[in-house]
């Protein structure tokens, strides 16, 4: 059952704004399944009214427009992210939060912690921090449009005693690897991992963060990065962002 669902979703995810119609071979190549298997899936979706065949190509039907209209207009990032924050907090036993840009600050929109340890990262919803240092600030700035970012780079360079070029290089590295890590940049002894959340326009206005005492983060950094990336991908998909789905298994 799960394999069938993955295959159907993979077909839908094959389409994009620049490739709104695809041949059967195109779809087979994108979902990495044999053409015969792909044909059976595509034929079923066509009969169900989700795909339309135009000569030798397929495109998504207007049925998706009707479904899109059923999405709650008030559904926001906090409602979407909350279950993921809760699950990630339970998995890491650390503080998990979500952040957005507010003028020249970043603001915490929501925070969850399940840890009862006396030493833990504390982040309060509504807390505002200048966009200078820390993994969340760096992720949010790394994905900013150039016009919005340029006035901030000089402040970051001055605060961190680096050149503008060095700051921009770090932002480029963050975009390439898809996350940022900081150790004691904002608060001594506290580390954090932050991952971008993409919306329907592939823009980044929010990020997911896992915060922990540096001593515990050092022991679990690789695992926490993997969990944070997966969590941000779940939120991004539900928020409309284009994020790769797990490859469907072949016959």
TrEMBL record:
SMART domains (UniProt xref): HTH_ICLR
Residue ranges of domain HTH iclR-type in the record: 2-62
Keyword Zinc: no
SUPFAM superfamilies recorded: GAF domain-like, Winged helix' DNA-binding domain
Residue stretches making up the IclR-ED domain: 63-241
UniProt-listed Gene3D superfamilies: 3.30.450.40, Winged helix-like DNA-binding domain superfamily/Winged helix DNA-binding domain
Pfam families: HTH_IclR (PF09339), IclR_C (PF01614)
UniProt KW DNA-binding keyword: yes
InterPro entries from the UniProt entry: GAF-like_dom_sf, HTH_MetabolicPath_Reg, Tscrpt_reg_IclR_C, Tscrpt_reg_IclR_N, WH-like_DNA-bd_sf, WH_DNA-bd_sf
One BP term from GO: negative regulation of DNA-templated transcription
Domain of life: Bacteria
Keywords from the named record: DNA-binding, Transcription, Transcription regulation
GO molecular function, one term: DNA-binding transcription factor activity
Stored PANTHER family: HELIX-TURN-HELIX TRANSCRIPTIONAL REGULATOR, ICLR FAMILY, HTH-TYPE TRANSCRIPTIONAL REGULATOR RV1719
Name assigned to this protein: DNA-binding transcriptional regulator, IclR family
Organism lineage string: Bacteria, Pseudomonadati, Pseudomonadota, Gammaproteobacteria, Pseudomonadales
């Amino acid at each position: 059952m799960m394999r069938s669902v993955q295959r159907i979703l993979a077909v839908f995810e094959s389409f994009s704004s620049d490739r709104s119609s695809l041949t059967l071979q195109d779809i087979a190549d994108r979902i990495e399944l044999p053409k015969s298997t792909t044909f059976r899936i595509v034929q079923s979706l066509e009969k169900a009214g989700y795909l339309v065949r135009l000569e030798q190509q397929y495109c998504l039907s207007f049925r998706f427009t009707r479904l899109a209209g059923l999405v709650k207009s008030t559904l926001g990032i906090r409602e979407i992210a909350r279950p993921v924050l809760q699950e990630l907090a339970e998995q890491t036993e650390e503080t998990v939060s979500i952040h957005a840009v507010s003028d020249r600050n970043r603001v915490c929109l929501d925070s969850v912690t399940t840890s009862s340890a006396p030493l833990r990262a504390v982040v309060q919803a509504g807390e505002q921090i200048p966009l200078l240092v820390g993994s969340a600030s760096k992720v949010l700035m790394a994905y900013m449009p150039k016009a919005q970012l340029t006035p901030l780079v000089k402040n970051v360079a001055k605060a961190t005693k680096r050149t503008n070029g060095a700051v921009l290089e770090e932002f480029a590295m963050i975009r390439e690897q898809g996350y940022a890590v900081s150790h004691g940049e904002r608060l001594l002894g506290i580390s954090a991992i932050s991952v971008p959340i993409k919306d329907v326009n592939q823009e980044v206005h929010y990020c997911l963060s896992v915060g922990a005492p540096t001593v515990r983060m050092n022991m679990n950094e690789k695992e926490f990065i993997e969990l944070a990336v997966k969590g941000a991908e779940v939120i991004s998909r539900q928020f409309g962002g284009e994020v790769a789905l797990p490859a469907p298994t072949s016959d």
